[in-house]
């Protein structure tokens, strides 16, 4: 086991410094970690205000002395981002961590592209800037130690989330994607279906309908890139759509039966 990181303070390079990357960075800075960032968008002003060193060139970030490279890109862009990195310029073995909402896809890419000496930790913080705005206590942080040699750096990185009170959940990437297809993807799919249906608030909203409106609002705060990524890069999502279609078919009432039912025979509140 390596002990190249002698204290809990880490030098973390963030690739992808958008909304989610900045959200994570605020807590990491609070914990006194040293942060660098790069992005295709110029976030130099935001970084300056936060105390983060900004690199316009990903090569310069790779060449910096990082303990951790944190990949906070969109799901569809991960392959392009990885292939754009001059990985031969890494100064030493480095821990690569992804925070994508699917897990098998980044795991396969990282194993295929990264140098053999690079460690790999696949993670999914099951929260974001909205749900985590008041702190991370009791929010779930899923992780899979795909290839870890330097247990000290890995442990120090995981401690970022554990020390904030996260519920730390070690799980395989495959199991994560199975469960996410039945939870996160279905949630996003229903929210976007409601949006396509142009569902609006009414003067006679029930509590159940209010919940649907809230779901739609929450889902639409996330990008379409996230939704498409949850579908295209999680092999279990297609199975869920097929099953959902079959389940909807089983709920269809034949026209003859509908016509024979008396209006008002049952009262329900949804």
UniProtKB/TrEMBL annotation:
<dbReference type="GO" id="GO:0033730">
    <property type="term" value="F:arogenate dehydrogenase (NADP+) activity"/>
</dbReference>
<dbReference type="GO" id="GO:0008977">
    <property type="term" value="F:prephenate dehydrogenase (NAD+) activity"/>
</dbReference>
<dbReference type="Pfam" id="PF02153">
    <property type="entry name" value="PDH_N"/>
</dbReference>
<protein>
    <recommendedName>
        <fullName>Prephenate/arogenate dehydrogenase domain-containing protein</fullName>
    </recommendedName>
</protein>
<dbReference type="GO" id="GO:0070403">
    <property type="term" value="F:NAD+ binding"/>
</dbReference>
<dbReference type="Pfam" id="PF26213">
    <property type="entry name" value="TYRAAT1_C"/>
</dbReference>
<dbReference type="InterPro" id="IPR045011">
    <property type="entry name" value="TYRAAT1/2"/>
</dbReference>
<keyword id="KW-0560">Oxidoreductase</keyword>
<dbReference type="InterPro" id="IPR036291">
    <property type="entry name" value="NAD(P)-bd_dom_sf"/>
</dbReference>
<dbReference type="GO" id="GO:0006571">
    <property type="term" value="P:tyrosine biosynthetic process"/>
</dbReference>
<feature type="domain" description="Prephenate/arogenate dehydrogenase">
    <location>
        <begin position="10"/>
        <end position="270"/>
    </location>
</feature>
<dbReference type="GO" id="GO:0004665">
    <property type="term" value="F:prephenate dehydrogenase (NADP+) activity"/>
</dbReference>
<dbReference type="InterPro" id="IPR059064">
    <property type="entry name" value="TYRAAT2_C"/>
</dbReference>
<dbReference type="InterPro" id="IPR003099">
    <property type="entry name" value="Prephen_DH"/>
</dbReference>
<dbReference type="InterPro" id="IPR046826">
    <property type="entry name" value="PDH_N"/>
</dbReference>
